[in-house]
Amino acid sequence: MELNFPYLTFECLGARAAREQPLIGFEEVVLRSGMPMPEIWARVEQLRQAYCFLPLKDRRASSTDVFKDKMNDERYFGSDKLVPYVHALKSLNNRLHLVLVVVQLMKLPLIRSACLADKLNPCIEDFGESEAIEMLFAAMVDRYSYAVASLQYEFDAAMINLAREMSVTPSYMPHLVGHKLYAATVSKMLLKCAEIFKGDEPKRRLLLILYLRFQKLLIMLHKSMGKLTKKYFTAKRTRIRKLINLTENRNVVGFYTEKALCEIEAKNYRLAFSIMGRIVTKKSEESSHISCVDTMHLYLVCAELHIHKGRQAEAIGILVSLCLGKHVPINQTTVHSKKQVLEGLRNAEVMVRAELNALDTQPAEMTLEEYFLPNKLLILLRAICLIEVLNNRRRKEARKWLNDLQNDQFGPEAVKDSERKRFIREQIMEIQMLHLRLSFLVFGQVEFYTGFKMIKLDELLEKGLEEFPRNMVFLQLWSSLKTIMWYRQRSRLIRTKAGVASLVHLVVAVHNRFGIVDDNDKFSKEATRKAVCNRLISMIETFLPTNVDRLEVEEEQYRILRRNSIYWRLYMMCLSKTNASFKRSKDVLVMAMDECPWDKSLLMEGARVLPVELASLQDLMTEKEMRVFAMPEEVDVLRGL
């Protein structure tokens, strides 16, 4: 980063002794625990991974005097070590791409769209994918709609439970030791990255939006694990308020929208609506018309939150005002007549047609920041459709319009040579799915008034996954379906070319369908757990070359999955839960090491599943020059002391 941005110093990526002080106390607890030596070593190693992940930059700095043991020599780095591997960018236009890749490597989930995934990480078959399970939180960080958020909570909980098992240190997952240090490092890194683009406002705003969404994710994770305290949330709220109160951020509406959504995730609905209400009041004093796209997005989010709370009249009022382009107090109930609703729909249709005509004048290629920023066309289409569902469920004009757009202007042939139109096609498909889900949520009947030639949600999802396999929303919705036959749900995810993302969603689908039992029924709980693990093992082995009945599509998937340690760790984890034989577990570990020889977490999982092989695995880590923080001899001496 400093090579490409020499005018900045990234202190957030340098180790500080004070931050690592808690490590000493945790180590002493482990060393005095009386556990077997292999377990003590594994615990100490994980602790040091959680706290010692940052390098030491300067040997002469007094702050590093506490790092006196020889093992810390490996944490120093200099330019002579980096020259063979690091090169400056040839084009300044790639700076944002570089920053987003770095942020991704720090386990920040930011890719929800398949089009964005293809642009940022196009070569998953050649280079594999991220091996951080946290990347699968993308659909939680950037929800595609708050109107149907209640239908997603069960899936979110299942995904978080899987991440608790699969995450490795360092991580910001709240159940892991050292999570505060890593979360602070990622947060500071995002703020530092925003400084890179001080002269480019859209890119600067994008990085700050990602920072705010990361804070929202931390709140969600703490809440789901029962760790969201008043003190923690108050500190988060204070930091967000200080950031937004800066002169350069004070007038950015998008920041206030994200701030309000942080309050929503903490169940502070009244305060969230108050934040949005103050912004609308301020904007209405400047002009009676809604002209800013960020303000339009705020109106849409506010309307969806009202729908989520069951306040349909308020939602319709806000949506009609959005379509008319006129400000309205969003904290007050505004009743619109049928005539006003129709007028709003007509006005919105005029604006939509203007946006559609303007598409032909825009470049076919999208900039990276456009994938993250609100889009006027999509906001208007969503508003029109929400009004139709809430106001008159038997009207089909908007739904037919979306269908026509998908077949004509944004048809499969029309979007082939246009990145922009392909992205809009993907987003319109999300809006269609929102319609079907909202119709079901509000009225409980779908086929009667869908307007898509009686198409059902599962049919639309299959079509979406075929075209956009790496779309996290489509994967999430398909995995959460319980009204279709299991063989169909399973086969679709196996055929979806999304790599490890499709596998993980398949695992969550298994837990959702077959793993739910009464907590008080201990016998059934244990039997169900083993049955789920056996089912998962069967699915994982479907892809292996040893499967004589393997299909061609499963062979293609294996070429991607075999390069990702999540696949192998999941396999070994399931084997250990079913008390598989030593030989079977060892054979899988050997296969895994052949496919992913660079991955230390794989060897750590092997040490947990096969503790008798610990010494061999430690030697292998040393031989492959992997960073071993706790040498066995050192831990043995420390335990004696």
From TrEMBL:
The keyword Nucleus applies. It comes from the Eukaryota. GO terms for biological process: negative regulation of RNA catabolic process; regulatory ncRNA-mediated heterochromatin formation. It is found in: Nucleus. GO terms for cellular component: catalytic step 2 spliceosome. Keywords: Nucleus. Belongs to the NRDE2 family. This is GM19624. It comes from Drosophila sechellia (Fruit fly). The gene is Dsec\GM19624.
